[in-house]
Design a protein that fits this description.
Strand content of chain A: 15-25%
Number of domains of chain A: 3
CATH superfamily of the largest domain in chain A: Periplasmic binding protein-like II
Largest interface: A-B, 29 and 29 residues
CATH class of the largest domain in chain A: Alpha Beta
Strand order of the largest sheet of chain A: 4-3-5-13-6
Radius of gyration of chain A: 23 Å
Helix content of chain A: 40-55%
CATH topology of the largest domain in chain A: D-Maltodextrin-Binding Protein, domain 2
Number of helices of chain A: 10
CATH architecture of the largest domain in chain A: 3-Layer(aba) Sandwich
Order of helices and strands of chain A: HHHEEHEHEHEEEEHEHEHEEEH
Largest sheet of chain A: 5 strands, mixed
Oligomer: homodimer
Chain lengths: ~300, ~300
DNA sequence: CTGATTGATGCAATAAACGCATCACTGCAG
DNA sequence: CTGCAGTGATGCGTTTATTGCATCAATCAG
């Protein structure tokens, strides 16, 4: 959309923190970009950016403006999506942020099955912790967020939730692999590898430790589940995973998953949500419905397994 | 704002119903305007307007787009207002629609006293019935609406309300002028001049007639209070007015106002409100607060008079 | 049919945007 | 302190996009 090109320019400068840098990514010269910004500030009557010796930074007025700009750009996408929708083709782009736990199996399946129905819809799926997830929503970089135990904030509007209990992950040769249900004392008896503090699971575990009054033996901390899972094969320790992140069958694998007693570590809530007050593009709204449905189904089958 | 000039063009064409007509009001040639629209439709992939033999009309896609455009333009005004606000000067423009009853005294006082505080704020005050008031809000032609007994709709978001009882208006020489409180039988005993059906007072009266089972003797119907008030001097009949529409003192006037028994015609609610979900410009929001306060005060003094 | 009105289009004139080279300024490393 | 690398601002010639005029095809009222 041509008319909001100037807005896109400003957005890029705000993100890049420098006019020249933004001009580079926008594939225009810095002079052109600089002049457009000067013209915009002229129109507005106040500077949008503060000029620093090493670039620019949004002024207070710029903060107000950039929020408007991002809202408008996102809303234009929604309108285009709705227009495309009423001409029959369901097209558009859905941008999702979610925790690592969901990515490998659940999200991949969901995206794939949605794209089977609507091949014209494209996706971008980004991994991030629950703090930045909210930021991504407010800056309109993401349409949907799927996060475990999200921070309480007025910006986040839940569209669905499902309870998720933690599972213990360990090598098949680990002594605790003998048991099918692990208690708190079991968890204390072995070293553990944990995700980083911004992770929702970590939050649940910290809370459990606080409540029980004794700490787990943390030997590894990493933001990569892959790394942790591989490490489990080298040393006898355990780690954790959400039920939804488990592969379907694990009979042959070297890595096994075991349930944890609810009384040891309480289960937490997995939320699907969007930015509060925003009207989502058609494709994003429909996909959100789909994963909420899928989560509810997963919840039911989970409970059946328990029962 | 230059970047939303194309949007303003489309809006004007939509309102005017013809490209040439819109080009005329925009002070450009129809060629230029036509081409901008063609370019926009090209970008969008679908036509915005249906081409009729005698002009153009919004297509379905155009309806979606025009709503976005009006939202965007109004929101830009809000941002500009907020930016102006943080640089100290409180400037901006407030557009109000309200029923006839409020205009002559109440609204004039309110606008005047607000402008005494903030001379940089300009006003436009339009009179319309309660149906079109909502339309004016949804099309962003008005920021605020002050209406009596508004239509129930999800678009209207009340910000304050005050109960208003009807007063009877008549010539000083009218027989009923002797009494200080009029009952239903009094109203039946004389011809009446009524506002048109879209008026809120009329709605209350129709409801009262329906409930009582007998009709008032309607001899005049007009959408001009001025006309009705003048007519009262030529024929012995009565009309109605809201308490808030009364002049402060009426001792010397040829026209007098009398209370009506609540049991005859129940009082209705006067609402101040805005478009649901909209964030108002600073000036409009502050002015809304001011008149809500003023209405509450008026309500209190009214009740004191009654007590 | 005739005249008036509508939106679309080819072509030349105009206005806006762009890119290059350069300046003035700041902070950092030597 | 000095030179260097990085930043945003500015003058000028060129390129691109936009505008306006004249005109066409289609439609409708009388």
């Amino acid at each position: 959309m041509k008319h909001l090109l100037p807005l896109h320019y400003i957005d890029t400068v705000a993100r890049s923190g420098s006019i020249r840098g933004a001009a580079n990514t926008l594939a225009i010269t810095s002079t052109a970009l600089n002049r457009r910004i000067l013209a915009m500030e002229e129109e507005l009557g106040v500077p949008i950016f503060e000029r620093l010796p090493r670039g620019v930074r949004l002024s207070t007025a710029g903060e107000l403006l950039i929020q408007h700009i991002r809202t408008q750009m996102a809303d234009m996408e929604r309108v285009k999506s709705q227009i495309a929708d009423l001409s029959g083709v369901r097209r558009g782009h859905v941008s999702i942020v979610c925790g690592q736990a969901l990515l490998p199996h659940f999200m991949a399946e969901q995206v794939a099955s949605y794209r089977r129905l609507h091949p014209a819809v494209t996706f971008s799926v980004k991994v991030c912790d629950r703090n930045t997830a909210i930021d991504q929503l407010t800056s309109f970089d993401a349409d949907l967020a799927v996060v475990f135990e999200p921070m309480r904030t007025s910006e986040f509007q839940p569209m669905g939730k499902v309870e998720q209990s933690l599972k213990a992950v360990m090598s098949r040769s680990h002594p605790l692999a003998e048991k099918s249900l692990l208690g708190w004392s079991d968890l204390l008896s072995t070293p553990v590898a944990l995700p980083t503090a911004s992770n929702g699971m970590r939050y649940l575990l910290e809370e459990a430790m606080l409540r029980k009054g004794n700490d787990l033996e943390k030997i590894i901390e990493s933001d990569s589940y892959d790394f942790i899972r591989n490490y489990l094969r080298h040393e006898h320790c355990i780690s954790f995973q959400l039920g939804i992140g488990l592969p379907q069958e694990n009979n042959t694998s070297e890595i096994v998953y075991r349930d944890i007693d609810e009384r040891a570590v309480p289960s937490g809530d997995l939320y699907v949500g969007q930015l509060k007050g925003r009207v989502l593009p058609v494709a994003a709204a429909l996909f959100a419905n789909a994963i909420v449905k899928a989560l509810e189904f997963q919840y039911v089958t989970n409970n059946e397994k328990i029962a």
